[in-house]
Amino acid sequence: MPRPKRGMTTETLTITRRGACVLAAASLIPSAWAMAQSTVPAEFPKRPMTLISPLAPGGAVDVLARLLMEAYQARSGHAVTVENRTGGAGNIGIDAVRRAPADGTTLLVVPAGNLTINPSLIANLSFDVERDFAPITILGTAANLFVVGPSLGIKTIPELIAKARQTTMTYGTPGIGSQLHLAMELFKQRTGVEITHVPYRGMPPALADLLGGHIDILVSNLPVVLPVIKDSKVIPLALTTAERSPLAPDIPTLAEAGVPGIDVTSWYGLLAPRATPKPVIDAIFAVTSDILASREVQQKLEAQGLSVSLEPTEVFADRIRRETATWRELIRQRNITAN
Asked: What is the dihedral of CA 15, 215, 147, 58, to 10 degrees?
């Protein structure tokens, strides 16, 4: 079996074929927004804005950033741009926002793992999430799950646990330190089974190896594998989330499958530099909430595998602290390193 190249990667989500993602993002904006005259709080930036994504174009972060770009621009009457500042496992783009003026004109759109996992894996980061950033809200979430190939001969989590106790098994993820990697490590810790991690550089090669029979299990975002689930090319075992997904209501959660206490959801958040005044943060939250409350927006995001999941700034900040503590302890207990 070809051995995939190991290395630290950040969690990304391929929503549709990469070449169509940016075009799909533009289609997410309802035409009514162009004529929207909704009341915008006085504290909302009335100058050009920049939304920075620390990841390459083509994934959930980019789609969400471009959705906000169009909507903010329509609401404020000023230019809004998206910059994909990649590199350093996402840390270059994050640091750019840390150093930006704290006036609400530069915002960060970022996946969970960059904020809650990387600080425990990467030494000497130039930023501290709690010290340097002001959380605004979660923009969207995506369910995660375990899937296997039909040739493995199992269809349930109890069968997976039994087989893992009898033979050597492997599981693939998009990289060491990704949220999907840690979801399986949490599962292994709770069940006492040992399954060997095979890290890849992204989901496409990992899925290809699952379909080719080179790995036994894949931990994935639901939208990535939903097409092959529908084609019966892979078998879904369970979601790592607390609740079932409306996109795949027949797939049980791990708790329903007999492994309670695991709730790992991929989420994508909006943050500003820490010193941004609270009235500005509140205004950005209010405008963002209004945008994402649109049922038309929600339906179009659902079609891309995302669910809107707004949280007040204080709740979002608490989520970041709580998940950071959980992953820090798991990384220590499981002796997980970036290399």
From this structure: -10
pTM: 0.83
**Domain 18-142+266-334 part of CATH 3.40.50.300:** no
Pairing verdict, β 80-84 and 217-221: unpaired
The values of phi and psi at residue 192, to 5°, are 80, 10
| Superfamily for the 144-239 domain | Periplasmic binding protein-like II (3.40.190.10)
Domain with CATH 3.40.190.150 in the chain: 18-142+266-334
pLDDT in tens, 281-328: 999 999 999 999 988 888 878 877 888 888 999 999 999 999 999 999
**Amino acid at residue number 309:** S
Q: Rounded to whole angstroms, how far apart are CA atoms 269 and 234?
A: 30
Per-residue burial over 240-259, b if 16 or more Cβ lie within 10 Å, else e, is bbeebbebbeebbbbbebeb
How confident is the model over 195-246, as pLDDT tens digits?
999 999 888 899 999 999 999 999 999 988 989 999 999 999 999 999 999 8
